[in-house]
Amino acid sequence: MLGLDGASWDVIDPLVKAGRLPRLAAWRAQGAAARLASSVPPMSFPAWSSFATGLGPGRHGLFDFTQKLPGAYRLRFSNASDRLGATLFARASRAGRRVLARGMPAARGAHARALPGGAGRRRSPMTRMLRASLAIAAAVLGFCWLASGGTAADASPAVLDALFPSGRETVPLAALAERVTLAPGEDFRVTLLARDTQTSQHLVAIRRAEIPHRHDRHALLVVMLRGHGRMRLGAEERPVGEGSILYVPQGTVHAFRNESPEPAVAYAVYLPAFDGRDRVETP
Predict the structure, then answer these.
(1) I need a surface site. Which of 8, 70, 125, 266 has the fewest CB within 10 A?
(2) Which has the closest alpha carbon to 243: 219, 227, 257, 230?
C-alpha cells in the first residue's frame, strides 16, 4: 500500500490529467479508486489511525497531533503509544506475516513493536531523529519519482514550505540562507522567522564558534543551510555540513564551530517556542 498524506483527489486528478503522475495513473487504472469520507476531525493523526485500526477517533483515542499534559498548561506530540486498538500491521505480524510500516503518520511506537526482528528496541534520540529524517526524505524523493515517471530530471529545487501563523511561505533554501547576515565584527546573530504555540523557527548565523550551552526546557532541530564545521552534542563532536539535520534533546550540551570561510547559516526550530531565557552556558 502507498499512502500520500493530504493528496486528495482534487489534488491528484488535475495532475493525472496533465500527465504529471504517469505511474500513479497506471496503478489507479489497474486497481480501484473512490472518494472516502475522512475521519472527524479530518486530520492526519486520527485519519491514519482509523485506517490502521478500523476504529473511529472516539474509539482509538487520537483526535489531534498533540495530547494535553495532565496538571499542566502544556501539550506534547502524540504517538502510537497513545492509541487504543490493534493495527492491521500488528495483527498481520502476530499471524506470522512480514510487515513494514515506513513514514506513516502516527506509526511510531506500537507499529515498531509489531515488526519482527527486534525493531522495537529502544534507540537514542539522535538515532530516532535520523530514522525519521530518512523516512521523510525517502517519501519526498519517492513522490518526485512518481511525478516524473521514474526520473528526477524536472524535480523542484529544495525549499522551506511552511504554514506559519501569518500564512503559507515557500522559500528556496538558498534564498532563505541570505535572509540573515552578519555585520562587520559581528560573530553571531539569530533572526526569528515565525512562532506559534508549539514551536519557534529561527535563522542562525555563526562566523566562528558558539559557547557550549544547553536548553533545559527546549529541544532543538537544526538544518544546516550553508557552511560546514564541527558540532558538539553531549560528549561527542562530529563534522557537519550543508544539508545536515541535527537533533538536540532537552538538557544536552551542544555547540557549533564554523570551519568554512564565510558565516555558516542554519534553520533552527525550538520545541516548545523559545522563551529567550532557557540558555545555560556550560564549559
Answers:
(1) 70
(2) 227
The per-residue pLDDT for range 224-250, each reduced to its tens digit, is 999 999 999 999 999 999 989 999 999
> Does residue 189 contact residue 204 with C-beta atoms inside 8 Å?
yes
Query: What pLDDT digit, counting tens, does each position of 192-209 carry?
Result: 999 887 899 999 999 999
Using DSSP's 3-state secondary structure scheme, residue 162 falls into strand
DSSP assignment, residue 15? H
Give which of 201, 204, 215, 224 is closest to 273, Cα–Cα.
201
Q: What is the dihedral of CA 231, 236, 237, 240, to 10 degrees?
A: -50
The pTM of this model reads 0.49
Domains and CATH numbers, the chain: 9-123 (3.40.720.10), 162-281 (2.60.120.10)
**Exposure string (b/e) for 64-86, b if CB count within 10 Å is 16 or more?**
ebeeeeeeeeeeeebbbebbebb
Strand 219-226 versus strand 264-271 pairing type:
antiparallel
